[in-house]
Amino acid sequence: MNSILQAEDAGHQLQWDVERDFAILKDREGQDIWAGSLLPSLVVLDADGKRKGVPGQVMKVETMDAGSWRLQLKWDGVTEGELCCRIAAPLLEFTSLELHWSGPPRPLVALHYGAKPLTVEESHMACTLEHPLWPDWRAEGYCIPSAKGAPVQSFFRKWDFGHASIPLGNFGPSMGTPYAAAYPRPLFAGAMGSSAGWVTLGSGSIPDGAMTWRIRSSCAMIELLFREDLWGAPAALIRRWELPFRLAWADSAWEAYRRFFGAPERPQTETSHHQKSVWNSWGDFRLKRFDLPEIARRAISDFGVQRLVLDDGWETWSSSGVVNTGRFQNFSSDVSDMKSKGLQVGAWQSLGWIMKPKEFGLGPDDLLCGSDGVPRRAKWSMDIHSADPWYFFPDPSSEKTRSFLRERTQRVMYLLEPAILKLDFAYGMPPPDVASPRNPAMRGERCCEALMKIVVEAAREINPQVTIQYYGISPLLKPLIDMVALDDVGDCAEMEAAGHGEWSIWASLAGLQGFAVMASSGYDWHQDEAIVMNTAIIGSSGSVLPVHMPDGSPVPERFICRRLAISRWQRHTRGWAPLWLNTDKGAQGVLPRIRNWGRLETWEEKTRLVSLILKEGEGPSVDLGEGRHVRWSGRWALISQDQQSIFGTSRLALIPFDTGWLELPFDAEPREIRIISRQGEMPFQTWKWKKNRLRIDLPEWRDGFVGLLVT
Q1: Torsion sign (Cα): 253, 256, 257, 258
Q2: Quick one: which of 40, 488, 86, 539 has its CA closest to 240?
Q3: In this structure, are 345 and 418 located in the same domain?
Q4: What predicted TM-score, i.e. pTM, was given to this entire model?
Q5: How far apart are CA 347 and CA 350, in angstroms?
Q6: Exposure class string for 224-241: b at 16+ Cβ within 10 A, else e
Q7: Rounded-to-integer distance, Cα 430 and Cα 443, Å
Q8: What is the mean pLDDT of the chain?
């Protein structure tokens, strides 16, 4: 049989010997980038109840059509099956995988990609015999976006992890990752590579197992954990997975992720009512400040936002859907007053947590339980010694649970008439080792999807236009998510500006897919200017900042003006591509770092640069192509206010972050330039027009100065 499957593009060649189950990616000079096995391996229990790892073996290869094959497989002593795959550079996909049981289905403990059993000799060298299979994916380094927080880190040398388990989906700290919230997970993929190229490997569909990137020493594999030895196996004699695995390659890790996600290089842009500015009450609620009228007043007058999200703390307990009237005695009138002033309201809801299930008639049969039938509990850290409250976790298998989630959601929709729902905490759940949904179709990563589907469908039934906000840049949840939110950058500790910059680079992958993107903020006002600059590129102004400084003093005027500017002039569109300029997307040994970069939008098949940020010390000039050069001093954000480029727009917003000057090509002499301040508007005089170049000098900073508007 012809057992060599291969594909190549201008830069790389992938070759997979399916009989030996050895795949290798090389660059154009023949340098190895990545190597390892691809056939799925099964982990089951042997007769003694011990875990046994069984690799897949190819029995027959059939060509289906150009670039597509069917592989007949067997797992010795367990079962047989079929794998269909296709290769078209730069992508390899397993389009389907089937297990064919000749008798009662055997419970799976786990399924692995990139794993082989240890030989006797290898077992004498292995530093742990904890698992029956050993990873065999090898490369110089890894890229798992924001796998580490505080400080945020996405690129790692092959030995940096040691023995690590990194959840790629919704499980987070319960399966090995120190808490870094969700964003940019769920990814359902990880990358490996070097300066010669990168490969991204993961799932093309939402798995019914808990998906983890397991690293042992310097090698990796993907594990899908089922623990059907505890929870029982599906009864069907044919077990089938659609798009269970895919692999994409490119020169850079960022580009390999783009190709893996199937994101276009130049998406069509459209206006979006989801892309509105948001103020979130968590900045004050986390400090135990619950003055809703004051928060709303500041959100409107100081920050000019369109939406105010009431975060965790507005309910009697997390996700009860019942107002805490002891804390908010005038809740209804306060919310009505916000709306009368033009402020749309949003609500935080936990997808996965229930603090007091008995109050809603939910018992053990409606919650995730252990094998002893006792409900398990979860929280953001999974720290059993922590004094933070624990929560029960709903089982979407239960009709009573589904009814509760639906009724609670619709009660909130009728009560608040929210324009946006911020969904949270599906990633603080027990792992399959201790609990699992009773319905096998809702297990693993599908548990989050099932919970989200119940809530989202219930909300959209009341208001089809409601914005659903969640975390994660994978397109697999796109049918359920309107807005991808960067999480609170407080998780980046004292490095909020750098962390937000790195997160913004990954957010561009969501922008390519047509998600609305909410840029969020950190908790530190003193680092907020860098975040506002990033927001000019990636999307919607969002904040979890308090409306006062931590000591209760007023927020400095300068900080207020920057937030007001980005709320006023942000792009209200989705579907965009990054113009990198000298921004670093990241590489082995090079952290992703925001420098100068821009936002490209495509209208009627024409791509235009609609926003640009320029940083001091990154110039003194930048070449934007087509003979267009920008020169400047200081820091600037330039945002077109229509569908035209920053060079041809009829309304160009300029947000300076320092005193300085700016010189850029402009298609026509401006009619006027106006100073926009908190006190009003007035003509701006210190500008010049010569040979189709606009020169602006900003010699001094004025109190209340928001920015300039060129018309």
Answers
A1: positive
A2: 40
A3: yes
A4: 0.97
A5: 10
A6: bbbbbbebebbeeeebeb
A7: 11
A8: 94
Among 466, 74, 428, 500, smallest CA distance to 276 is for: 466
Question: What is residue 180's predicted lDDT score, i.e. its pLDDT?
Answer: 56
Same domain, 285 and 252: no
Residues 252 and 309 in one domain: no
* Structure-block tokens of residue 68: 């597509």
- In sequence order, what E strands does 529-656 have? 542-543, 573-574, 577-579, 597-603, 606-614, 621-623, 629-633, 636-640, 652-656
378-433: pLDDT as tens digits: 888 888 888 888 999 999 999 999 999 999 999 999 999 999 999 998 887 899 99
How is residue 160 written in tokens?
Answer: 């940096």
Torsion of CA 567, 572, 576, 578, to 10 degrees: -20
For residue 640, what pLDDT band results from cuts at 50, 70 and 90? very high
Residue 486: give the domain boundaries.
Answer: 275-574
Taking alpha carbons only, the member of 521, 565, 519 closest to residue 538 is: 519
Do 466 and 497 lie in one domain? The reply is yes
Alpha helices in 149-267 (DSSP H): 228-231, 253-261
Helices 292-301 and 331-340 pack at an angle, to 10 degrees, of: 10
Alpha-carbon distance of 439 to 208, in angstroms, equals 11
Give yes or no for residue 125 having a pLDDT over 90: no
Predicted pLDDT at 339: 97
Three-state SS for 478?
A: helix
Q: Is the pLDDT of residue 444 over 90?
A: yes
Domains of the chain: total: 3
Instruction: Dig out the tokens for 126 from the structure.
Output: 């292995």
| 8 Å CB contact between 21 and 58 | yes
Q: Are residues 163 and 204 in the same domain?
A: yes
What's the CA gap between 359 and 366, in Å, rounded? 13
Q: What are the CA-CA distances from residue 630 to residues 41, 74, 665, 693 (Å)?
A: 55, 62, 7, 9
pLDDT at 2 over 90: no
Identify whether the C-beta of residue 186 lies closer than 8 Å to the C-beta of residue 169. yes
